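Structure tokens please, single chain.
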Amino acid sequence: MTATTDGSTGAATPRAASATGTNHSAPAAAAPLDAATRAIQRSTDFLLAGQDAQGWWKGDLETNVTMDAEDLLLRQFLGIQDESTTRAAGLFIRGQQRDDGTWATFFGGPGELSATIEAYVALRLAGDAPDEPHMATASAWIREQGGIASARVFTRIWLALFGWWKWDDLPELPPELIYFPKWFPLNIYDFGCWARQTIVPLTIVSAKRPVRPAPFPLDELHTDARVPNPAKPLAPVASWDGVFQRLDKALHLYHKLAPRGVRKAAMNSAARWIIERQENDGCWGGIQPPAVYSIIALHLLGYDLDHPVLKTGLESLDRFAVWREDGARMIEACQSPVWDTCLATIALADAGVPADHPQLVKAADWMLGEQIVRPGDWSVRRPGLTPGGWAFEFHNDNYPDIDDTAEVVLALRRVAHPDKPRMENAIERGVRWNLGMQSKNGAWAAFDVDNTSAFPNRLPFCDFGEVID
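Here you go.
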């Protein structure tokens, strides 16, 4: 933007000619404007050409190779691995390895221990030998960082499923947690929704402590193969870390003494909670982590792989797979059609596409159909609030979010929809829902209200980052 002669701002405007009548700056000012105009047109054409026939846009959501590694570990655990999937996953994981033999958790990031361990184990499942150069480099780096013992809890849980780590050396997470009332510290609604959906099935896995035969040893990933599970010293008893570490020791004792009837009832209650939150397409929350742990938990409780709950759950995970031209297979952590569609709509409208353009109207139609009009977990803290939000994914009616809802409202306001009352009603409902989701401190989170307890983050189990919203 440049200032015009009257002081207003607007599109680039050539400066007034000099006294000689020569305008030397006009070509220089016009060149960037022309380039920007061409870029906008090309981008507009690209977006319009990429819209799905139903009206949505979606790009591939890349995260990191833990998604792909855990997919292979899940298939190994369930006994459903197949050669083509394993080969394609191995091709993708191998292609993401950094020059130093490690794998990162974000694009351009440094090597990360847990991601590197999971990727290494996945490549062992894919047939890569430990003495191959890329594998030997990775395992040497893992040992330098402390080996498996220094990995995050979630990684060690995956290894415990095959006896590569001892369940006794993992933090305890009892299924009786499902009975904690909503006002009690560390009840499941004190956790952010993504953590809540993962922790509930993991309470079943933690109680069952399954071990399937390991297809190979992993001695090369321990700093000392003779003592693979070194004990860590406790923090001072007067510290919060010390309190929660000792609570974990008490829970380990309870694991041995828990009344069978109580434990069985708690696991069944957790299973009902899980099943009630399965989406219509079989997924859980539209994201990968709750899905894999829910499938494992229900399978451990006796659900056959042909049971509709597990069958549709596995099918939903297959829809997260992106097959690339080179034959590699990447797993999306989740899918982003609502977010991509509302941003594409805003971009096209702001670029000058007419508000009543058929493709913008089609996008608005699709977004209107995605509005969530039934209660979800958010209503535990806001029971009287009328639903009206939007989620990030294709199917996630339990967990609409504040930022998607805000962006969809901004997008819908840019479209001249033929059914104006329908549009205005949806916008008003979305705005009222967002206003109702404001927390007591004046801020908005993503999914929940007042999800601010400091206790969940202090659990030894939660060593992977924030678990509150």
